[in-house]
Amino acid sequence: MRLKLYLPLCLLVVFAGCSPAEKPEQWLAQHVIFIGLDGWGAYSVEKADMPHVKQLMADGAYTLKKRSVFPSSSAVNWASMFMGAGPELHGYTTWCSKAPDLPARTLTHYGMFPTVFGLLRDASPDAEIGYEYEWDGMQYLAELSAMNFSQEIINHESQDTTVLVACDYIKSAKPTLFAVIIDQPDHVGHQAGHDTPGYYEVLKMLDGCVGRIIQATKDAGIYDETIFILTGDHGGINLGHGGITLEEMETPFIISGKHVKKGLHFEESMMQFDIAPTIAYIFRLEPPQVWTGRAMKQVFIENE
Q: Per the count of CB atoms within 10 A, which of 74, 84, 153, 178 is most buried?
């Protein structure tokens, strides 16, 4: 005679080594829109003509002293943002790493060091997750198989295509988590130079893009349940980056929206790898043990 064994779901979850996900109604916000500007140095914010960005700062919380990991270049820093740890653990060590240059400390079932995208997908299988980018190197830094939508846009001039695709996706899919990464500040930084009139013209143009993305959440009816995060991977000096100057290493971090304190210029230290835990905190996700980043909990209002 064969005995059938029935275990409560909670026990199965414990035996599997993970904790049950919080329900969406317990999240701090139902939607997170992450806008990344490649090559956007914090030194530029006060001088830039960016009214939409500065309104997000006034309506939310921000620091202009978030630091990059070494080197202060693209792939290693986007990876650190998404993966909640530095290159010593995730293994991406150069501006164009397409795979870990040294073995990642751990791999998930996606075959990658854990990112916030995979973490959300595993905890909430029904979540709508999107990923749009202009630099092809971004495809190696997140689990594309965890996305409902992922697309590379070849567009270095006006960002019209990038923003049109982003706005259409927001209005049609109402994403739970959507990251859109724009390459243009870095592109013009290498051509005209950082901290030049051409660089500030691009930032002015990109501010309009930010405004259109914000408007898309209003058109979609999700604005009041959305948190916006706006940041960069590195700054620059002259025509390049990758060094150890603050112009290259300090980048803005701006967060605004549902359950975010208003007008908070916070002084606590922040690194690139603190972004993933901060997003995880919004969705009440348990960070993996291998993450070293800290959630910026001080920016949130818990009981509102």
A: 84
